Amino acid sequence: LEEAAALSAYLTREEQTLVATVASSALVSFLIPQCDYLNFLHSYFPSTSGTASSRTSAHTIGTLEERLTNAMIWNQDSTIKGGSVFPYSASRMRTTGDDNDDGFTTAYFYRFLNQGLASYLSCGMVFCSNKAVIRKQACNDIVQLISMAICPVTPQNNVKSKSEAGSSSVKETSLLPLSFQLSHLDRLQILRVCKELKMSYDITANDQTALAQLRESLIGFASYVAHSDEEAATAYEALVN
Questions:
Q1: Class of residue 71 by CB neighbours under 10 A (exposed 0-12, middle 13-18, buried 19+)
Q2: C-alpha angle 107/18/144, rounded to 5°?
Q3: In the prediction, which pLDDT does 127 show?
């Protein structure tokens, strides 16, 4: 991701789409270890059956909640039948308790956040109007995943009514964010990475929605999650940036 971000100006649209989907799937692999992240990655792309034109026209990308749920079910089925795709993946053995973690996987998670994801967020590829459909969905997924990781609950005064549920975010309608395998320090690290997010002046309506969720999570972290005034100030600093 760090190298791809450095070469972002020279990447083709197809290469930018691939980078976005891999970044999203890599983040999922750390946040939800019980999720088959290769299945999640494949969910962005059309099936290999049928002609190329029919695959492209018929392919629709499900909601983030649907694809995460399917990937978790797929991993469970694979494990029952004889092991998941990567049964010895370090992220699957990670513990949320700071005292019980041997530090190996956490170190790689933080390296991914601080070098890979931070570089990607700062290069300007996340928010730009000229994006293919798949890349647009992957970028929105990244922002939604970050939002849910920073603060898994929605402030009560922001919860939509049942009549508005169709336009609600995953965080407002699902318990999935509460299954993220994160400690408080993990959430703080993800929060700090948000300060690297580079904005654009021509963002789309979908980007506006994702940004609204991110701002809501930053405020939620400062209000409900922060353990000190310093941590709350970090959240507001990311909000201002």
A1: buried
A2: 60
A3: 78
